[in-house]
Amino acid sequence: MRDGSGEIDFRKLVEDTDRHGNVRVYLRVKGQPKIRLREIPGTDAFLTEYRRALAGKTKPKTPKPDTHYKPSTKGSISWLVKQYYTCAEFKGLGDRTQQVRRLILDAFCRKDGDKPYAKLEPKHIRKRRDAKSDTPEAANGMIKALRQVFTFAVDNDHHDRNPAKDVPYLKSTGDGFHSWSIEEVEQFEKRHPIGTKAHLAMALLLYSAQRRSDIVGFGPHSVKAGKLTFTQVKNARNKPITLELPVRPELKAVLEASQLGEATFIVTEFNKPYTSNGFGNWFRRRCDEAGLPHCSSHGLRKAAATRLAEADASESEIMAITGHTTSKEVSRYTKAKRQKVLAEQAFDRFKKPPESEKSVPPSED
């Protein structure tokens, strides 16, 4: 990179992703602690910050002591959770699932980790569940995680029962992520026209109907004989699902008009692939710029499934594209389509009375 004063060597810069999926940039010099750079890459402020750090004028922060959650003693909930983290079942989970489960269990342990797990009763878990009633998915995630911890405890003779199994899940409210409308897609495209990275990201999500964890891995290697060929990231370790999807003309046109990365189609400012969470945060900002704060990357997957249902695709056909293994999720889209059709048919009958109800003029005899 040049700024008029000679070559600037950015090879000492590295990217790390925190547990929330945020991408952070650091200066790393051999034999020295790394220094975080907080300005936006590519700006003059970033260049100034980089030079100060390289000249030794910025000191790395002293790491804080580990206060992840309350100290664990044998027999405590924290101790049991730490044992669970070492078991084969937990290690066999996908990286993303492991990360989410750690966040849930660590949060539980920060409050109750020092208490004996042998005395944890269903009523205690119900109380923690009900405290999250405003966010039923979060409450259910906590119950699911605790069920797995105590399943491990029973299987390994740490406990004789699973108190979380006696706590039912809360009913979910609403339909989850907002599904983009055609008008919202057009609004996004107007703010981020074809040729921009944001437009490319939107097209990959919409015309593949895949999760963000999948599209961040799409690249030249994914396209074979005109088809996207890949294994979905979700459950890739336990129940891998490999899909072959035709590259739609709309997506092909966007790919041809976009600047693509070498390893993956979408790359960061440093020409590196995005993490799933890092991409999600970046795409969130692009939606905000387009005046769509209620839209998200996952909502485009729902929009794609909805469009397929509107085009009279069957549940099996939609599942062949989205990779769902059961019709439970997909039936939401086809059910909505059936409702519209039935409503139209019903109103057609309302407008056209049956033959038996038509009035007959009296005979003139």
UniProtKB/TrEMBL annotation:
Gene3D superfamilies: 1.10.150.130, Intergrase catalytic core (1.10.443.10)
GO biological process, one term: DNA integration
Region (Disordered): 344-365
Keywords (A to Z) from UniProt: DNA integration, DNA recombination, DNA-binding
Feature: compositional bias, Basic and acidic residues: 346-358
This protein's record includes keyword DNA-binding: yes
Pfam families for this protein: Phage_integrase (PF00589)
Segments passing through the bilayer: none
GO molecular function, one term: DNA binding
Domain (Tyr recombinase) ranges: 175-347
Protein family according to the UniProt entry: Belongs to the 'phage' integrase family.
Record's protein name: Integrase
